[in-house]
């Protein structure tokens, strides 16, 4: 069974410890034998025969046996405890490592709550399986199999009694385990959805309150929990029936063996002493067999969890690291898009045939109507996804030949929704460059205008911000994100709507900060407000996943029918946007094709807002 | 609150008793029945050694006496087998019933507790969420409730029944031979000492372990949604290293806990072994003197083994018990969290609000004694007016908006906010928030479809209203172009939509509720100016009488407002129409020049070239 193989794989690194623990457990179960024998000795020798001088020896023997049992029990725990905990640690590590490599498409379709629930809850279920108890049951089964052999060789009728009980037991075992497993899978899936939903709603607590939907949320959550409740109850009932059937059969089996043995005594084929020891042995056999039911229950639950974990562990990242990575120092910043096309889903391209050559140090603005291809193009540049066709090159090296870490180290990204981690302000800035000195952090903070509000915080740069810390305003968080990009000293900068939430007072200053950040770096700027992109060396106008125009501000405005002119006119409600002529002439590196150009504008006239929901 | 905390610290069981009183009490009868069933089930073990001892004595007797003497041994065996099988069948039936009942009751209790915790979370004010990490909150509902489930289902009744069973066995021993019963008791003080020795350590460890699990939850729930940032900063390895630190700490604590439990268990085994030896030896002495038959001696040996096995198990229960107490404390902590914003007694109903909003001397700080975010703000918004709130970040614009629908409450000395002349704190919260809709900065959509998101604020809205909201928010064309229309899924947090689409959907969601006052907290920042302008004019056209307050840092967003209020560091700095403020030439005037400066001749824009990034190719 696949699950068994996976579990064996998980404990493989701990083989030595497991073997030691198994040996110790076997010793522990063998240590169960001397006590009844010693008691038998006491009964026969002292009580019946009246040899009271032997009593101290027997008593010392008994105490020694129990002391040995205690010592072995502690030893077993010491041997096996690191295994269960180690497996849990290994599993979480392996899952998280895999999660770090999986493509963003996985995150797009899997709710964060569900991912967390796998890392936490499913792994905990597996832990419940790998314990000393499970090992004891398995080992006891092994040692008692030997005892069972002894038992079976003693008397045909006793053997028959044992075998018939085992047969009944095996049947119920098969019957129940499948049901329990199916039920457990269903329960976990449903709870997953419940808690994924819960996380979403807790994160949006503000919206829930703003629309006075608390009572509706309460009812909705109760409904969801209720939906998981039925299957949960069913699994509980099945488990109850199964484990009690196991115990009951074990007990009846023991009684049966005792009765059969007693009859054999009457027929003169066994002695009373043998009956007692046979019954004891039968008890030792059926005990672990009955407990096997509990183990099977745990195993089935763990099996369901392991299958779910396997889904993640077996998933292949859709962006693969190159077999032999091309080393790259600090890139110069030459970026080429060579006939790049991409669709999040097959047959639905959101970017068509993009060809761009960006010289080092150029500032490129990507403009166009909401939602069609600008952000996607940047996702491709960062290799969050690989192009469906075509190729992107950095300094002439295809991105596929660079390791993603090398590539992303070159790029400083400022996203539209700024993310703040629950760390100190300094560590937030340092996020992309862990070894950055305090001086460098402060320099980045000054450049991004974080310094002023940072020093006003209670503990300055050491203040914990983000969730559970000091609440920063959206504008402050945005500046923090800029500082973070700055601290990394990237060769390329991507600003994805980075300034959309900056206020006007901050904006004049932030232009200066961004100018610092962009200085000497190749930059891609996605912006809605055209005023912010006027100075770009190259403005790329996109529509419906196509590059419809490219050129400087002045050149693009010259094109009367161009989309850029229309966008500009509408944004400033001026029918005739003025053409800016720079006194020093267009400052443009050589090798860039200039002037408005088009790549197959489709029949929909440019300017018609073509919108499609895109996976961002 | 502080009283409660004090009480909890004083008595470890306070939290537990409270959960018992609130959630277990309805099941008292069922639980009592289950306990009786469990005791009966346990008691049914007792006859087995006695029956076996009886058979052995009969067999020994029949070996020494002629067969005709007394009842036939075969009959004895048949009777004993029948009785034993009956005992086991009875045990099985009882065990089945008890386990199934306990599993049902514990799942019901857990369900109610989960519901109660969630209800509490929904009723807590926003400031709770500002200072709590979602991961920590989630850990209470999943982990802590889970460990209570484990205890209820697997431990609680077993614990009680073990204690009672041990007493029962001891009584049987006493009945067999009272000296044996007393001998069995010798080790009880040792058991107590063993328990004392480890209880504090086990409890501390399990407390720290739960804290570690919560921290792990918090880390994951912060980092997994931020995957884009992690990737773009190439921090995958560092993330893994950080997780490794956490899981290593978790493993170390777990190991320490298991070792403590192992020592405790080992000592318990040893102590019980001593007890068994004492009983056996003393029993042998008694049998040697002829005061005990061999069968009785065998029976008492089996009994004493059964007497001690529950006692050994008790040691194992201790770590579970400690974990449960910690979990229960954390659960009651959450349940005790004060609901700072709730309906006052005799909250007034709000019918047909006109939409007049008045701020009177509003002063507010997020923490008591903290830096005031708003400082004596006075503002009068007449019904039907559109007001633009303009100012730098941190000037208090968002806070001013959030106070009106009571997302945060003013202190008693912090002034007042009136809706149609009535203090908002005297109104029912549900009524108030239906009348005053806040559209927050971040869109925060929900997994589901366009339709489910749109109907969020007003589930009973008719299709016409949904349609009008879509048109106003400039989403109608988009929705019409989709094959599934309103039933198109939008993904978790609406992430299959672009930023602008998310914002417009969030706006439409508020419009469907048709509020009298619409508070737009910079919620169109991702839209281009033309779309924004289109939406603003549609807002006026579709619902002329509605009061709107628009927060923005863009002049273009507020220039058409009837009144523009400029906030600076929590105070109203300027007020007036666009033209008045531009003439005034203050903060607003400056911003206007900056933001539209590009339309002016280059010469009139000093410093423009200086700020221009210099290409360096």
Throw out a few tags for this protein.
heterodimer; A: 616 residues; alpha/beta; ABC transporter transmembrane region fold; Rossmann fold; 3 domains; six-stranded mixed beta sheet; four-stranded antiparallel beta sheet; 10 strands; elongated; disordered C terminus; B: 617 residues; 2 domains; 63% helix; 9% strand; disordered N terminus
Layout: helices, strands, pairs:
The complex is a heterodimer of chains A (616) and B (617).
Chain A: H1 2-11, H2 15-30, H3 34-48, H4 55-101, H5 104-109, H6 112-129, H7 132-154, H8 156-203, H9 205-210, H10 214-266, H11 272-313, E1 335-345, E2 348-358, E3 363-367, H12 374-381, E4 389-394, E5 397-398, H13 404-409, E6 411-414, H14 425-429, H15 438-447, H16 451-456, H17 474-487, E7 492-496, H18 504-518, E8 522-526, E9 538-543, E10 546-551, H19 553-558, H20 563-571
Parallel strand pairs in A: 3-8, 3-9, 6-7, 7-8
Antiparallel strand pairs in A: 1-2, 1-4, 4-5, 9-10
Chain B: H1 2-10, H2 14-24, H3 28-43, H4 47-64, H5 73-123, H6 126-131, H7 134-176, H8 178-185, H9 188-223, H10 227-232, H11 236-288, H12 294-336, E1 357-364, E2 374-381, E3 386-391, H13 397-403, E4 416-419, E5 422-423, H14 429-435, E6 436-439, H15 450-454, H16 463-472, H17 476-481, H18 499-512, E7 517-521, H19 529-542, E8 547-552, H20 555-558, E9 563-568, E10 571-576, H21 578-584, H22 587-596, H23 608-611
Parallel strand pairs in B: 3-8, 3-9, 6-7, 7-8
Antiparallel strand pairs in B: 1-2, 1-4, 4-5, 9-10
Summarize the structure.
The complex is a heterodimer of chains A (616) and B (617). Chain A has helices spanning 2-11, 15-30, 34-48, 55-101, 104-109, 112-129, 132-154, 156-203, 205-210, 214-266, 272-313, 374-381, 404-409, 425-429, 438-447, 451-456, 474-487, 504-518, 553-558, 563-571; strands at residues 335-345, 348-358, 363-367, 389-394, 397-398, 411-414, 492-496, 522-526, 538-543, 546-551.
